[in-house]
Design a protein that fits this description.
The protein has 206 residues and is mainly β. The protein has no helices and 22 strands.
Length: 206
């Protein structure tokens, strides 16, 4: 069993090798996040209302996320599967290459999620926010069908980011807002909810 502290967020990552494969967990106080492992398709939030992240839908035989043929892991980033938050604790993820055949980051609870200096590559939504928690993206690139989809009351904030959407950059169906500053955005905006898109300046809309 090995442990490594990640960035300035105070998270401790622990890898456990067992008969079910290689599991990786992150701990910060009472919060526990499963980054990937075990090879199954879902991970439940802990009963205390924590958050979990898994990489099950883009997995090799050991349950770890897998790169496509010819795909290169950027220097300084470690590979992760999708991040999923269903509880009430705060989660911070730094310097990850988040790979998913579905949604990259999902927020279903009231927890707040920060993704910093990372890359999100997703077949579905880069960020899927259906809860009341907020998602803050800092220096992060999103490559997905939809950059961010807001269905709940939480907000998505992007600072010094890049959104490369194959369909819509932002889909707003709930009451939450999308705020962007210093961000390159490729893709349209679909806003049918009460939420708004706030341009805080320095953005490049394509």
């Amino acid at each position: 069993m090995t442990g490594t502290r990640l960035g300035n967020g105070g998270w401790l990552t622990v890898a456990i090798l067992c008969g079910a494969g290689l599991w990786m967990f992150a701990f910060a106080g009472s919060a526990v996040a499963r980054l990937w492992g075990g090879g199954d398709d879902a991970a439940d939030a802990d009963e205390s209302g924590g958050a979990d992240g898994e990489a099950a839908d883009s997995a090799d035989a050991d349950g770890a996320p897998a790169l496509d043929e010819g795909e290169v892991l950027p220097a300084g980033l470690s590979l992760s599967g999708p991040i999923r938050c269903t509880g009430s604790n705060d989660v911070r993820v730094e310097r990850k290459y988040i790979k998913s055949k579905g949604d990259g980051v999902s927020v279903l609870g009231s927890c707040n999620v920060t993704i910093a200096d990372s890359v999100i590559v997703a077949a579905g939504d880069g960020v899927h926010l259906a809860g009341s928690g907020d998602v803050d993206l800092e220096g992060t690139t999103i490559r997905a069908a939809v950059g961010a989809r807001v269905l709940g009351s939480g907000d998505v904030s992007l600072s010094d980011c890049s959104v490369e959407a194959r369909s819509k950059a932002f889909v707003l169906r709930g009451s939450g807002d999308v705020r962007a500053s210093g961000t390159h955005v490729k893709g349209g905006v679909d806003a049918l909810g009460s939420g708004e898109l706030d341009d805080d300046g320095g953005n490049d809309w394509r």
